[in-house]
Every structure is written in structure tokens, then in C-alpha cells.
Specification:
Dihydrodipicolinate Reductase, domain 2, 10 helices, binds nicotinamide-adenine-dinucleotide
Length: about 375
């Protein structure tokens, strides 16, 4: 495989995750060429220069368009706030670069469509940062479902909760602006939606309720500002094949730090998983004597691929950043034309469509069918 020249736009929470992944992918997987960390862009020169030296990039700029124009850059990581994704991703694709864009695709459906169009026209790879599908445990859950280990699936429940917006006195920032999206739905619910897509296919119908726990927040510079979107969403859904599902997303849920609790019920058993305990899952199979029936806890191990690429010992555990390293390896595979387990812009657009259908359902107080 050819060595890829990497450009990174944004160096906050996700920017660092992408930088770690680009730095580690060769060490972990071995079977790819070591990426070359070519160009990094931040909002100002000083921060860009500092981060370039910390993350190991050769060039730094405060002008992301200069990064995109750089002929040595083959692939661009877009890790800026949501509202910048369309402009940056489309410009990168039009310049012939592959794109690894953080989720969600874009606050507006029209912009997400334009991103897909740009990827289709360019013939370059465009994927989204839906890292939770990369967990070796999640991949094994998918295998078990496919093998019929818990029979015909009839009901799925998924809850995504964090508490970074639980404090009513937390400062207003970009995530509370309507420009960044609906709130819990596209900031949060898109992750469980990526898992539902990965395991069961696309959502077919939704009915939603949304809540704004705090109507306004203090501003860092003094004064207060109205919260423009909803921190909490509850959704009833029909999945492909008529499976009933419930999704709840709350970014003001005190005590929950990174919960994505998934329960899958079938005709012969059940599976339970929580991202806060991402190195294990529970399997219930309705067989054997009733006196010993119960959930079995299964710890992540080299048998759950690609766990063994990181650690040869079972039960030692991977971390959040490791999911990004796996995602990075899948992206490199997709660029090389291999079959890859990623959320492409095609499937990402369907996730966006689902989110907009959820918001429409809330505003119109009714079920909304999602056309394929
Ligand atoms: N995949 C995940 O699990 C996950 C988790 C958190 C956030 N995200 C997504 O990642 C994206 C970024 O979120 P974050 O939490 O990293 O935000 P952040 O605020 O920590 O970082 C964003 C960075 O972008 C930089 N930036 C802003 N405008 C820029 C510009 N014009 N040019 C260059 N840099 C610019 C900012 O200075 C900042 O460093 C969002 O879309 C978010 O939804 C994904």
C-alpha cells in the first residue's frame, strides 16, 4: 500500500484522536504503509504550530484551504465543529483528497447531500467518524446475531447518556447553537443510529419527543444566552424487518459519562452491552436447565478481531482511542479498494435522513416514515 499524506483540520478532542490514530495505525496493524503526517490546520497560527510539533506534523497553517491545496496531502481528517464539515469536506473532495470527517455529516440535510455528491463526483473515499461500530465486541455481537445465537430479533433498546451538559451553570458553547444541529439528536443519537445500522440495517419509521432541560446558559464573558436546541430526545422506531426499537439520548444525564447501553432481545435469548464497559458484553441463551439460566459475561479477547492486534492477552481491554485506530485502518483499506467496515457518506446520509425525520416527527407530533 502507498504511504498516505495526511492533513488534519482541527486539533481539539477529536483532532487529537485522529492524530493518535494516524500515528499508531502502522504500529498496531503492521500491514499498511506508515502514513506521512504532512499538514495541520487550526484556527490560529500559534495553536497550529504548537499542535503540529506535538502531533508530529511537518507543516502548520491557520488557513485550512492551504492544507487542502497541498499536493502532498492525500487524505484530510475534518475534526472541526459540525457547521464547518460541509465546506471543508467538499473542498477537500473537489481537490481530489479522500476525507475522514467527524460525525455528524452536517447540520443541514441539503449540505449532507452536497457532501455525498462531491464524494461521488470525485471518486474519492468519504467516511464518517462513527467509531463505536469498530469495537471488536460490537463486531462479535453482529456475528452472533447473524448466526442466530439469540434467534429472531424482535426488540432493541439503546440509550446514550453523558453529563457534560447536566450542570445548568455550564457555559454556553457551540453545541447549544441551532447552527450545530438539533442537539441530542445529531450530536448524540447519530452514534446509536450507526450501531443500529451496523447491526440491523436502516431505520424505517420514527416518532420523537425532545426536551430542553435548561432554557438558557451563562456566557463566559458574562450575561446569558438562550439554548437553541434540545439536550434530550426519546424516540420510538421501527427498524428494517419490523423490529421495534427505542432510542433515548441525553447529554444532561448526571452521572453518565459515556453510556451507550444496548439491549437486543430475540426469540432465543438476549444480548446486553454498555459502552462504559466497552470490553465486555452479556449473552443470554434460553437453553439448558432453568436453575442455571442467566446472562454470561464475555470479556474482549484476541478471538474478537482485531483486539489481538493491540494486545495478545484476553481481558486486558481496549480504549476509546483504539476504536479510532481501527477506524483509521479501515479507511486506509477503503482507499486501497479493500472491503471495509466503515460508515461511508452514502450510509451517513441515511443516518442524517433519519435524524431529520426524528426532528420532523417532534415538530409535527406524529410518526414519520423514512423513504429509502
Ligand atoms: N466520534 C466521536 O466519538 C466524537 C466525539 C466528540 C466529538 N465528535 C465530533 O468531532 C467534531 C469536533 O468536536 P470536538 O469535540 O473535537 O470539538 P473541539 O471544540 O474540541 O475541537 C474543534 C477544533 O476545531 C478547531 N477549529 C475551529 N474552526 C477552525 C478552522 N476554521 N480551521 C481550523 N481549525 C478550526 C478549534 O480551534 C478546535 O481546536 C464535531 O463534529 C463533533 O460532533 C465526535
Amino acid at each position: 500500500m502507498k504511504s498516505l499524506g495526511v492533513g488534519l483540520i482541527g486539533t481539539g478532542y477529536m483532532g487529537k484522536c485522529h492524530a493518535l490514530a494516524w500515528n499508531a495505525v502502522k504500529t498496531v496493524f503492521g500491514d499498511v504503509a506508515r502514513p506521512r503526517l504532512v499538514h495541520l490546520a487550526e484556527a490560529n497560527e500559534e495553536l497550529a504550530t504548537l499542535r503540529a510539533s506535538e502531533f508530529g506534523f511537518e507543516k502548520a497553517t491557520a488557513d485550512w484551504r492551504a492544507l487542502i491545496a497541498d499536493p502532498e496531502v492525500d487524505v484530510v481528517s475534518v475534526t472541526t465543529p459540525n457547521q464547518f464539515h460541509p465546506e471543508m469536506a467538499i473542498a477537500a473532495l473537489q481537490a481530489g483528497k479522500h476525507v475522514w470527517c467527524e460525525k455528524p455529516m452536517a447540520p443541514s440535510y441539503g449540505d449532507a447531500e452536497r457532501m455525498l455528491d462531491a464524494a461521488s463526483i470525485s471518486g474519492r473515499v468519504g467516511i464518517l467518524g462513527y467509531n463505536y461500530i469498530q469495537n471488536p465486541v460490537m463486531r462479535h455481537i453482529k456475528t452472533l446475531i447473524g448466526e442466530g445465537a439469540i434467534g429472531e430479533i424482535n426488540h432493541v433498546r439503546v440509550e446514550m447518556d453523558e453529563d457534560f451538559m447536566a450542570d445548568p451553570d455550564a457555559f454556553f458553547y457551540w453545541k447549544s447553537e441551532l447552527a450545530a444541529g438539533y442537539g441530542a439528536l445529531d450530536d448524540f443519537a447519530v452514534h446509536p443510529l450507526s450501531l443500529l445500522w451496523f447491526l440491523f440495517g436502516h431505520v424505517e419509521a420514527v416518532i420523537t419527543d425532545m426536551v430542553k432541560p435548561y432554557a438558557e446558559r451563562p456566557l463566559q464573558q458574562g450575561g446569558r444566552r438562550e439554548v437553541e436546541n434540545h439536550d434530550l430526545a426519546s424516540v420510538l422506531m421501527r427498524l428494517h424487518g419490523g423490529i421495534s426499537a427505542v432510542l433515548m439520548a441525553n447529554r444532561s444525564a448526571w452521572g453518565r459519562k459515556g453510556r451507550i447501553a444496548l439491549q437486543i432481545f430475540g426469540s432465543k435469548g438476549a444480548i446486553s452491552y454498555d459502552q462504559e464497559r466497552m470490553n465486555e458484553f452479556e449473552l443470554y441463551q434460553a437453553e439448558g436447565r432453568g436453575t442455571e439460566q442467566g446472562f454470561r459475561k464475555i470479556l474482549a479477547a484476541p478471538a474478537h478481531r482485531p483486539y489481538g492486534r493491540f494486545i495478545p492477552a484476553p481481558g486486558h481491554g481496549l480504549g476509546f482511542n483504539d476504536l479510532k485506530i481501527i477506524e483509521c485502518r479501515e479507511l486506509i483499506g477503503a482507499i486501497a479498494g479493500e472491503a471495509a467496515s466503515v460508515v461511508t457518506f452514502v450510509d451517513g446520509l441515511r443516518i442524517e435522513k433519519t435524524v431529520h425525520a426524528m426532528a420532523q416527527s417532534f415538530h409535527e407530533r406524529r410518526w414519520v416514515e423514512i423513504a429509502s
